[in-house]
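As the next step, I selected for study one protein, both as residues and as discrete backbone shape codes, as given directly below:
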Amino acid sequence: MATTSVLPTNAGPRARIAVIDDHPLVREGLAARISAQPDLEVCCEAADTETALKLIRECKPTLAIVDVALKNGSGLDLIKALAADGNGPRVLVVSAYDEELFAERMLRAGAHGYVNKQELHGSVIEAIRAVLAGDIYLSAGLAQRLASQAVAGRRSTQGLEVLSDRELQIFELIGRGAGTRQIAAQLHLSVHTVESHREHIRAKLNLRSGTELLRRAVLWTFENRT
């Protein structure tokens, strides 16, 4: 069962923050950093999408910090669900995954900023304040790359950028060791649909076999996880 908690609300005009991450130490570190600010407080924490949605509806945070990969789910799906609610919190993604690959997808899904965990120490409070103020927060490097792509009128088709959101989600789960039936159960898809996605991924990445797909997925996931 996922580790979760609802924390007591403090009096005063503090912005309420939800921390959604499947690593307990990351949640603890983020909560400590946020709670040290006089105008911010953590109102709830969760490790998976289902519990996150329940607690967010209960504690009504102003902002949710969300990781890309969650226990038994995806941060992308959580962001889409929050956006569909209409009255959900603003969302800041804090993840170890490559921002160049994931940030634009998360923004399209409804997120308002992206911070790489490698830059967490110096930028997370700045990012929180920017998103709370109604801005979009991206690193300077990513903002420049996105601007360059817009000027060029095209997006890169190299590497994993060619995968759809669902394909990328399945690719990441393959890399975490999930089999086809596990992926189907977790994403509420049929085994046949997952197998079709696997073939599309393999074709798009020019991989000759399922073994090559597994090897690449595991290597990529290992390089991008904390």
